[in-house]
Amino acid sequence: MVNSKALTRLRYRFFSGRLVGEVLSKSWIDSAIPVAALLVVVAIMALAIPGFISAAYLADLSRQLAEFGLVALALTIVIMSGGIDLSVGSMFALSVLAALVGMNVLGLPLPAALAMTLATGFVCGLLNGVLIGYLRLRAFITTLVTLVIYRAIYDIIFPRLASAIVGNMPDSPAWDYLAFGALYGFPVSFLIFAAIAIALHIALSRLRPGWRLRAVGGARKSAYNAGINVKLTVCMAYVSSGLLTAIAAFLFSARLGSTGADTGIGLEIQVLTAVVLGGVSLGGGRGSVGSAIVGAILVLILTNGLIRMSTPGSVNQLVLGATLILAVLFDAKWVKHRGKLLSKVYVSPTYLDLPVREKSAADPFRMNDRLADVEIIGLGDVEGPEDVVLDGDDNLYTGTRHGNIVRFLAPDYKKSEIFARIGGHPLGLSFAENGDLLTCVGGMGVYKVSPDGKVDRVTDETNRGWLSVIDDSRLRLPDDLDVAPDGRIFFSEATIRYEMADWVVDALEGRGNGRLLCHDPASGRTRTLLRGLIFPNGITICRDGQSLLFAETWACRISRYWFDGPKKGRREVVVGNLPGYPDNINRGSDGTYWIALLGLRTRTFDLAMRKPGFRRRMAKRIASDEWLFPNVNRGCVARMSEAGDILDVLWDRTGHNHPSITSTCEHKGYLYMGGVSNNRIGRIRLPDADPDWTSRDDYWGRRR
Q: What would the pLDDT profile of 675-691 be if each residue is shown by its tens digit?
């Protein structure tokens, strides 16, 4: 039996399929298959064509990529906005004509010819943008019409200037350098393309215009309701497309020095194939610069290889058309089924063996009904008061799921007011020595509120783990915090895998997804202290000023960690095998600590935690609202000594007043209680408590 348990524990710790789910959740997974296809195509071409890969070929390919890749980036921006641009081929031809007229016919300096080319692309893109963005015409039909218009303009102008273009060659070293020059072994045109691609990547993934573009492409109506100027965003996407196409045309004109009647014909199909093949979704809102570049390289290598194999042009078009169909089919199926696949494999249960608790007369946690007559504060005025805290003037503070911190005014707490608007759900609360109210905000990070109600962010990220697949530098679910004597803020993050709305799903895994962190205001740095914790929650600084207590909810234990002193870095369990799920921990009078139990353990759920295969099948086969979850409908409050001895326990047997208790705060002879699932705050008198004791005085000393 022991060996079986050990094997099961090892099996679900190291071979649980967790890695597969985390890889599938990454945005770059959309480009994984195109990259694999690219490698396969390169291998096939290298075997089929002798000398296919050479320095000369790579130099020529990089110059083609500079031109073709810019057009692919242009189309990527439009598709990400939720549209499409079929006119890029005709727009490209018209811009090539403008560049050659400026350089060969008019003899303009290179900057003036470039401005003339960019103006052509700008006007073409602006026309598309106004028609589609402001007049709300359908993108497919509109760009199909402008394709014909731009091609007609080209066909009218080109025959009249063809002789002048061919018969005149500009005397411009800069023009020649742009076409055939190299810098550190790289073609100049390729370096220009690389610089634009990097800038565009930053704009799309890190800056506000890129976020707005994705929002408009993913859900246009929601973006509008969020205050985004949808019309302007769509219009600017087409303008950007026109400008990028014009730059590509300018590089093409410098390299070839001429144009023809077939310039740009079929380019829109090639570019569309490259973009979709690279992983940019035709549905909008999803794509990247990297995806477009991978697709562009793949199409260029494929077409160049077919040409070198002397394949007829009609066959080349057939291959591109078939490739486009396959890419569109894959895009549709991948978008449709990726979410379903991820939901089946992402939840990764592990083996968690909690010892069986035997009932006895000496059990300090035996049931009572001492919370039956709790005084109710703010019934219906708050939703989700996860934590409660009082200031030096006896005012009571709590957070709500609506994103506010509410203050109930002493002495009777009948009146309340919104003290601060945070935006996310404030969870753990604690006062700093200077009077700032610190709070962990689910999905946002750690924030502080000054006494006058000004909200400032403290931290929302930490150092990333070297072995973490998912981005664990962002704080997903910080849930409780406390302040050390030197001002350092210690806080827990319950899970790095789930967001605020899915916190209970972490219980189904029973895995060490949480961590303990520290923010140092002096340096402004946040660092992870402990990893692999099982839903760490309550945090409180011990009175020695060198250690802290923290709860691991699903592991049902309280541990102590030394962050300073001779035992620095040491961790030990203070009390384990609790009958319920511990949440916040706070100081009490007489050197004790209060522990809130979120809910009561059941033998059914304890058994399920020893059956990871069962929980995995449950997560795969039935709806999430029918999963087996821990019982969080009956909680209690326990008083503990610093050595881990349980001194007192208070239950609400019926669960009517406080079905779920997530925090406590002792203040002047009363115990205040909050609950993340409640719509009220509870208060009960502690008959033997010091009527003058407050946690603020215990932390920072008596106010003078």
A: 888 899 999 999 888 99
37 contact partners, CB below 8 Å, separation of at least 6: 277, 298
Instruction: Name the segment(s) of the chain with CATH classification 1.10.3470.
Output: 13-49+61-343
Angle at 228 between CA 225 and CA 230, to 5 degrees: 95
Q: Contact 264/93 with Cβ under 8 angstroms?
A: yes
Its pTM stands at 0.76
CB 271 within 8 A of CB 88: yes
Q: What is the 3-state secondary structure (H, E, C) of 60-107?
A: HHHHHHHHHHHHHHHHHHHHHCCCCCCCHHHHHHHHHHHHHHHHHHCC
Token pair in block for residue 157: 């102008």
- The pLDDT tens digits for 476-490 are 999 999 999 999 999
Query: Which residue in 609, 597, 577, 568 sits closest to 664, CA to CA?
Result: 597
Query: What's 130-156 look like in SS3?
Result: HHHHHCCCCHHHHHHHHHHHHHHHHHH
Over the stretch 304-339, which tens digit does the pLDDT of each residue have? 888 877 777 677 778 777 877 877 777 667 766 777
Say whether pLDDT at 673 is over 90.
yes
Total Cβ atoms within 10 A of residue 118: 19
Length of the chain: 704
C-alpha 671/C-alpha 639 separation (Å) is 11
Q: Which of 204, 212, 195, 209 is nearest to 289 (CA)?
A: 204
Q: Beta-carbon neighbour count of residue 176 at 10 Å?
A: 14
Residues 551-567 have pLDDT tens digits of 999 999 999 999 999 99
Query: CA-to-CA distance for 512 and 536, rounded, in angstroms?
Result: 9
- pLDDT tens across 407-425, in order? 999 999 999 999 999 988 9
> What are the angstrom distances between the C-alpha of 86 and each of 140, 147, 267, 268, 526?
7, 6, 9, 6, 49
Note whether 80 and 204 are within 8 A (CB): yes
**Topology at the third CATH level for domain 375-463+471-700:** Neuraminidase (2.120.10)
Residue pair 18/348 in contact (Cβ under 8 Å)? The answer is yes
Q: Compute the distance between CA of residue 550 and CA of residue 494 in angstroms, rounded to an integer.
A: 11
Which CATH number applies to 13-49+61-343?
1.10.3470
Please confirm whether the linkage preceding 411 is cis (ω < 30° from 0).
yes
Give the pLDDT confidence score for residue 703 in this predicted structure: 46
Q: Residue 527 half-sphere exposure, CB side, CA atoms within 13 Å?
A: 8
Of the candidates 514, 512, 528, 449, which has an alpha carbon nearest to the alpha carbon of residue 476?
514
Q: Name the region of 62 (left: φ>0; alpha: ψ -120 to 50; beta: rest).
A: alpha
User: Is residue 159 exposed (0-12), middle (13-18) or buried (19+ Cβ within 10 Å)?
Assistant: exposed
- Asked if the model's pLDDT at residue 292 lies above 70, the reply is yes
Beta bridge partners of 449: 437, 455
> CA 437 to CA 636: how far, in whole Å?
26
Residue limits of CATH 2.120.10.30 in the chain: 375-463+471-700
C-alpha R_g of the chain: 32
Distance in Å from the first CA to the final CA of the chain = 63
